Amino acid sequence: MRKNIVAGNWKMNKTLQEGIILARDLQMALSGKAVNCEVIICPPFIHLASIAAVAGTSIVKIGAQNNADKISGAYTGEVSASMVASTGAQYVILGHSERRAYYGETNAILKEKVKMALVNKLIPIFCIGEILTEREAGKQNKVVETQIRESLFELPVKEFGKIVLAYEPVWAIGTGKTASSAQAQEMHAFIRETIACKYGTVIAEETSILYGGSCNANNAKELFSNPDVDGGLIGGASLSVDTFLPIIEAF
Ligand code: PEP
Question: Is the model's pTM score more than 0.70?
Fold first, then answer.
């Protein structure tokens, strides 16, 4: 059975002290509650070890927002997957549209990043999604299929089976504009079908596919009620317990 997951992407927000308080508050808010999904928070690299020490043994799992495409060496400013894993993080967001758009991450670079993550036993939360002009041109399926194929489809089935996917239409990220429930379901079903064609229906059925893009307390329940939507990757609403908790409770 595939997992339902709610993951928070803090992006470049929160000082270390603010991050520790948020992680603690979230952990406290969840303690004693019946939580029906995996809860992950993805703080900036520099907070990972401290937040893993605070929250890592609880119900809250920790993820990074990136890892390098190289093993180690003279790559100033980069953080390797082995470094991420050594903090206690278990997940890593890869291929976020902001990384693709602002830092030139291509499908080929992301293929290497995914390999590094998997070698170091990190679970990639691999983001895919089209920009507005691509959707308006009706090219969203082609764009998403290409992103998946070029970065992931050389993985052996056993390795692919570890990946979590996050469909994030770029036009919905941080814009307050959410994909409709029907648009999300349609794309998630297409993604599952694409996986099934390559790796078979068993793997496709076991792959968690999250929705991301202005998901909040008001729309989470409807989005998550779709048969192929297995949770959410949450940006803005993950920055406070008040807005993140109701999304977790939507399951
Ligand atoms: C994201 O950046 O992954 C995201 C989904 O952001 P937001 O929820 O703020 O749209």
Answer: yes
